Amino acid sequence: MTDTDLTDADSPTLVDKSVVGLTGVQYHVGVSAGDISDIVLMPGDPFRVQLIADQLDDPVEVAHKREYRTVNGYYKGRLITACSSGMGCPSTAIGVEELARAGAKTFIRVGSTAALQPGISVGDLIISEGSLRNDGTTAAYVPPGYPAVPDFALTLALTEVAREFSLSRGFGVHTGINATDDAFYAETPEWIAKLSSLGITNVEMESSAMYVVARQRGLRAGMVCAVSGNLVTGDVVYGHANPRLALGWEQSIAVALEAAYRLYA
């Protein structure tokens, strides 16, 4: 039998994921159009969604499926959604894709990051100006030379609000290019030293996917994270609670909410 002998009935039906599931309840996140705001704050940890809810009026859980916990609430009268991304670029990319299908337009990553330069302390905030794509997920979307960069206006707003808040709240504010890694425990001292020597400010695990997917889908994205440790000074909090980091999470959320409100009220 030749190819020309195949009938439509014999041919396989290939699934095109770009057109499947555009409406209705999203497969992984569990929300539909009309369920969420056009502004989404995205921590990695589902349990940290509650920290965002604590700063919102009338918070209501919309869905909690897999690593994606979704809560709506109001900041100064503006509807805001918080949805966790889970750890790493694959789950972040899925979350952004599906939340966008449900109506999200602006994404702000709030969470933890490790500093790579001296003079950055646990609990300080870092606003990302771009990401070194040391991940596997974004390679499925764009070629190697494609930059992973946040929305310019959103980044400026995050920086402005962070510096304003820091004057009265007493935390440090830093900006720069971060790295996005896939493998937390594969970050050797040699790799950390190389990133630091390149002037990379910090390393985390989600932003490159958020930026690339946002650019490909016509969305806005930015990141403000609290420093969980400094990998070049040894000031780290892995394995135990640290009040400086907990306060940093709260400050990053406050900055993200106010920046979003000023831009998109």
Structural summary, described in words:
- A hairpin with a 2-residue loop joins strand 2 and strand 3.
- Mean pLDDT is 94; it is low at 1-7.
- The chain has a five-stranded mixed beta barrel with strand order 5-8-7-6-9.
- It contains six helices and ten strands.
- With 265 residues, it is an alpha/beta fold.
- It has a single domain, classed as Rossmann fold.
- Helix 2 (89-101) packs parallel to helix 5.
Task: Spell out the blueprint of helices and strands.
Elements: E1 39-42, H1 49-53, E2 57-65, E3 68-75, E4 78-83, H2 89-101, E5 106-115, E6 125-134, H3 152-169, E7 173-181, H4 189-197, E8 202-204, H5 207-217, E9 220-230, E10 235-236, H6 243-264
Parallel strand pairs: 1-4, 1-5, 5-9, 6-7, 7-8
Antiparallel strand pairs: 2-3, 3-4, 5-8, 6-9, 9-10
Descriptive labels:
265 residues; alpha/beta; Rossmann fold; disordered N terminus
Quick synopsis:
By secondary structure, the chain is α/β, with parallel strands linked by helices. It contains six helices and ten strands.
What is the total domain count? 1
> What pattern of helices and strands is seen along the backbone?
EHEEEHEEHEHEHEEH
Q: Which homologous superfamily in CATH is the superfamily?
A: Nucleoside phosphorylase domain
What about the largest sheet?
A: 5 strands, mixed, barrel
The chain-level structural class is alpha/beta
The residue ranges in which pLDDT falls below 50 over 5 or more consecutive positions are: 1-7
Anisotropy-based shape: globular
Summed over residues and divided by their number, the pLDDT gives a mean of: 94
Helix share, percent: 25-40%
Number of strands: 10
Strands side by side in the biggest sheet: 5-8-7-6-9
CATH class: Alpha Beta
DSSP summary: helix tally: 6
> CATH fold name, please?
Rossmann fold
The CATH architecture can be named as 3-Layer(aba) Sandwich
Strand content: 25-35%
End-to-end distance: 63 Å
Please tell me how large the radius of gyration is. 19 Å
